[in-house]
């Protein structure tokens, strides 16, 4: 009896959706306008963003990172990947993909804090000095690990910064800017 009642409710909801679609798209002749004019004078760039490209996730995700990277490189489409610097460790598989991202002219690597720990989850509540220390520690870790992986002294640091949860305050912006981040 309960299954029959649930089934009837689903049928009723499906019929309601069909009627709404018919009303708006057929009877009301609601169709998007093809010749939409805009008063925007500047070019607008949309750059896809993919968060949390981190070495701390399961290796099962690495094929996905590679596919996304290959797609963007092949099609010459810019993309931003954010990462916690501490996640760059000694995982060869992750490091291969990460270095490929680092070397790609279509990828912007965006630093996210340092560790992504409980302290950083409330970073916007911390004083300026402590926020600077966290961001700087992340940059230092990134630089050290990339020097090791690439076997070079010169490492180009990320120029973009994203705070966990997007919670920025004036101190967060000052701390990021003082480290050369945008």
Commentary on this structure:
The protein has 182 residues and is α/β, with parallel strands linked by helices. Helix content is 48%, strand content 8%. The chain has 6 helices and 4 strands. A 4-stranded parallel β-sheet has the order 1-2-3-4. Helix 2 links the parallel strand 1 (49-50) and strand 2. Helix 2 (62-75) runs parallel beside helix 3 and helix 5 packs parallel to helix 6. The longest helix is centred in the first third of the chain and has 26 residues, at 2-27. It is extended. The protein starts with a helix and ends with a helix.
Give me the secondary-structure topology.
Elements: H1 2-27, E1 49-50, H2 62-75, E2 79-83, H3 92-103, E3 107-111, H4 118-121, H5 128-150, E4 160-161, H6 170-178
Parallel strand pairs: 1-2, 2-3, 3-4
Helix pairs in contact: 2-3, 5-6
Structure described in brief:
The chain is α/β, with parallel strands linked by helices and 182 residues long.
